[in-house]
Structure prediction request, 164 residues.
Amino acid sequence: MKDSKFWVKKISLIPHPEGGFYKEVYRSAEAASAESLPERFSTERNYSTAIYYLLESGDFSAFHRIKSDEIWHFYDGEPLNIYIIDNNGALTIKTLGLSEKDNVYPQVIVPATTWFAAKPVGSFTLAGCTVSPGFDFHDFEMADNKSLKEKYPEHSEIIDKLTH
Prediction:
């Protein structure tokens, strides 16, 4: 059986700033101009980007947000819970994986500008993340525990568990 160490080595994953391991595998050659994008983008963005992303048991992707939609794809391991706080403050937990169980799906969509975090249910999860307009670290905002809890006090328990 493949484990997380197999995948880290096979696809040359490196540590990700929000937790886990990743590797960018696609960045479109073409880009959309800043004028053609919503105002939240100050410069041009590639049409799309894609990464491999791996989390091991005990790791988590801390609450953060980006300016683009992000589609998560399940590849291997065990399911992954994705915690999404929408712009109205509603918390949704979506499970990424392959299972006959209800509410477990091979793709999960995280809408632009929503706060989200992820944590594996089991030993590890290998996923892919596709972002459009393409990911740029200028669009990445890591959540501050105190500020996020002040804005969404009803979610303090999960925010404490999934922020650094």
Notes: Residues 70 and 110 are 5 Å apart (CA to CA). The first strand starts at residue 14 and ends at 15.
